[in-house]
Amino acid sequence: MSLPEPRDEQSRVLPCHECDMVSAHDFHTTGWIECPRCQHPITHHTPKDTLTPALAMSALVMLTLSLCFPYLGFEKSGIERIMTINDASIELATFDQPILALITLLTIVILPGCYLLAILFLHYALTMKRHASISKRLIQILPTIQPWMMADVFVIAALVSLVKLVGMVEVKLFPSFWTFAAFAFLLLATTLRVNSIQLWERQLGTLQQPRDARPGHTSRSQNLSACHHCGQLQNCHNTHCIRCHHSLHERAPLSLQRVIALLLTATLFSIPAQSLPIMVTTALGKEDPATIIAGAMLFLKHGDWPIALIIFTASVLIPFGKIMAIAWLCLATRRTSPMNMKTQMRLYRVTEWIGRWSMVDVFVIAIVVAMLQIGQILSVAPGLGGIAFCGMVIFTMLASHQFDPRLIWDNQGDNLKTQESDVG
Ligand SMILES: [Zn+2]
Ligand SMILES: [Zn+2]
Description:
By secondary structure, this protein is an alpha+beta fold. It folds into three domains: about 50-205, no CATH class; about 220-250, no CATH class; about 250-410, Butyryl-CoA Dehydrogenase, subunit A, domain 3, CATH 1.20.140. It is built from 15 helices and 13 strands. The strands form five sheets. The protein has a four-stranded antiparallel β-sheet. The chain is globular and about 75 Å long. The two termini are about 40 Å apart. Bound molecules: zinc ion (2 copies). One zinc ion binds near residues 19 and 40.
């Protein structure tokens, strides 16, 4: 198999990963290129990208500083306690919650750290034109890591925990609190600039599509498959991409079956997540287990309704709403939905984006457990509800990532103009 002949025109032809439409764009366009049918941002053209490695390096420096200094501290009855970022997972491990400890450490430190190092290495390798095989592997892996980096969610969890703790103890903020917030912001800014198609173009040269690829029609209607990684259009019978060699599928295989299996697993996890205690507080020898709902109700009783609302939204509304939304989208692939395509795509994108924010609750447990350990006076232990809730969040996230949105569009035919008026 060989790469197609170059096209001579001053336009580039790109397939959309979300609706399968092939569209033509000005070759010299700078900034983001959007799909005209579903407005999915396909790629962006930045001739000399020096900002991304600069952001990644700054984020890495902030992460290193955050690990070197204390994060939060408090004083109560003459007892002082200081917590570091690492303590958020170490304390969970000491309470027989190694899985929760590992997930916390992975999502807020290890994965973001590896991601940033990979970005720096890639930009060095692509600029110096060295280490091609490692670069190709990294370009494939980066999009998989991205949704599982949750430093920004941890920052929001720290703010929720602060409100929870301020009523009990005198909380102090240490340098790492600010450097970690800066790290979360810089990490977000870095990820927003990383795009697989652009990285593959830097590695393999400008994308050359087949001469007979017609813009304004779906890849499927032209017997073509679009590579989900590098954007190469090619014969739909190929099993591997002729350009980046990644496995190629016209549609994600068994997408609906996988999504339904993952949704059922998430629903099963929701039963212990909502009924078992997520935290057990022991004050002066008296144990007080609290479920998610009981925790939200306690805030409401004390008049902290904004926090009660955040906890209720993140712990109940979002996870259950997400399960129902994905189930609805699965149904929409099998029959004509009463919703228009604009609403359905918005629903798909919101469910994909919002799922990780439910991890706020898991991180609140990690922070409160790490902070509130004052021997006999007051101690907080994680409950089994926490790990079940974490399982529920992870399986709903996996379900939305396995869903292939092109299946919804497959019901809608191939006419660009009618879809434009629908989405417009
Ligand atoms: Zn599209
Ligand atoms: Zn490819």
